[in-house]
Design a protein that fits this description.
Layout lengths: L14 H18 L9 H27 L24 H16 L3 H5 L1 H34 L5
Helix pairs in contact: 1-3, 1-5, 2-3
Length: 156
């Protein structure tokens, strides 16, 4: 099969840019309307824990993509769908890890606004990225992918 522009999921934007856009938007709102999230001191420990979890999950997911020899970027064709490592318990461990990272940053920064903007970021991720990727992978890998969808949750 030749690689062409149709052999991609057609996501609306690179997922890191979606998360980053909402993160920066939250910090902008927080600059003008600061709202504390947690008591002083607690936010750093909880934020660091979530950031670490996100980085670890992100690294484990990248490792599995490399082992499978398939593209990580959603604007490149997939040559395999990965079911090992973190993909055994989540169909989207990369986005889950990014969500942990985002949440950890919001908590460490003690920003209600950054955390609140995670909700629309996740809605856009769901409709603009995840559902498109799932349709693409189902079309490309057929019954094997449908069985995977039936056996592994989208997030946790």
């Amino acid at each position: 099969m030749s690689v062409n522009d149709k052999d991609i999921p057609g996501v609306i934007a690179p997922p890191p840019l979606i998360y980053l856009g909402f993160l920066l938007g939250g910090f902008l709102i927080d600059y003008f309307l600061p709202r504390a999230l947690l008591p002083n001191g607690l936010q750093y420990a909880l934020g660091a824990l979530l950031i670490a979890a996100g980085v670890i999950l992100f690294a484990l997911t990248i490792r599995e993509f490399r082992r499978a020899g398939t593209a990580l970027a959603p604007y490149k064709p997939s040559t395999a769908f990965v079911t090992s490592g973190p993909f055994r318990f989540s169909r989207n461990p990369l986005y889950l890890g990014t969500g942990f990272l985002y949440t950890g940053i919001a908590i460490a920064a003690d920003s209600v606004w950054v955390l609140a903007l995670l909700v629309p970021a996740l809605v856009i991720m769901h409709y603009g990225v995840i559902l498109r990727e799932e349709r693409y992978l189902e079309g490309k890998f057929g019954e094997d992918y449908r069985q995977y969808l039936a056996s592994v949750r989208r997030w946790l």
